[in-house]
What we know:
Chain A has 179 residues and is mostly beta strands. Chain A is built from one helix and nine strands, in the order αβββββββββ.
Amino acid sequence: MSLIPTASQTVGPFFNFALTTNASLGVLARDGAKGERIFLSIRVVDGAGAPAPGDAMIELWQADAQGCYAHADPNFSGFGRLETDLNGCCTFETIKPGCVANGSAPHINVIVLARGLLKQLYTRIYFADDPANANDPVLALVPEDRRSTLLAKPIHGEDNTWSIEIRLQGEAETVFFDL
Amino acid sequence: MRKRVNEYPRTTPGSQPEYASPAYKSTALRAPSRPLIRLPHSLSELTGPVYGHNPIGPTDNDLTLHFPEPPQGERIIVAGRILDEDGRGVPNAMVEMWQANAAGRYRHQRDDHPAPLDPNFLGAGRMIADEAGNYRFVTIKPGAYPWRNHNTAWRPAHIHFSLFGPAFVTRLVTQMYFPNDPLIPLDPVLQSIPDSAAQARLVSQFDLSITEPEWALGYRFDLVLRGRRATPFEEAGK
């Protein structure tokens, strides 16, 4: 038998009472998790530069500090999920992932769901100025002038806090992946 | 957690909506305008979360039991199987669903449709499908509701579904519709799917074998996640 995967439909604007009631899904690394603890602030904006006000959802999937997805750290989950606030922002508390394989740079896998997105968007978040970025095989597939759209940057004056904008469309549109 | 050694099959043309779908106006500023960059599947794509953060309660899949009194509306059963591309049940998939109430209103702070909220209906359920991929929800039939996409735009009655399969690439968020709904041919969200057979697979089927006599009508809705059996599974150890 050969079946065709079910078609995607938009998550719509009214998902939060079902999908994002558990704010603890914003905390991937609880106290005691091994690794470099970070705050990761993500802002989702549309093609006109307007934030997605409470009608977008971000899901994260990442390796632990040793680069393992099949991790054994009970204080680290690897999965996060938050809705954007009225400013289009959400902030996760996690650890900086390790390198998954030889040559890969630390990265977080991202799914974007929103009103107006008929199917999920896949992207990745890397960390600016990480020397491993130079050899990452996925970044190598991205035209050089667009790689910066995948780089979270440290927020000056705030320890261990990184931010990135996910631009759905237009100038400086984030690189999205076909998986 | 498990991993696959090889790639998942890629999307069949026409079976998924395009991001840019002019009839659905919210896509105008949100659909990416640049081509997606195709990635080979690595561990990052072939692994996926075990969704264990939220313990599932015993009544989480019966939306008529979330309050002391039953909700208003026509009680229904929605059941089916989570399958892979070989028609094999996907074991233990996390299934979440949510919907409007019988009057067509969501319990959401920004739903301003002038229809009554039901104090006895939240409209959100979840469960873990069994080893054979079977799931079953008891709920009430959601109402249609207007939206501002175009003049006299009404969404057909629908239930939202969210599923996690075994990998990051098996994530699926979709909507289930009801048979013989006159709004279906007019709905820009469902009509965004180019292939009409793929559209039709989002319409549930009335099913007497799911129906419970003297109690509730039954609807069957099967969902297919990406993936084939041919690829061996192995524990991801590193």
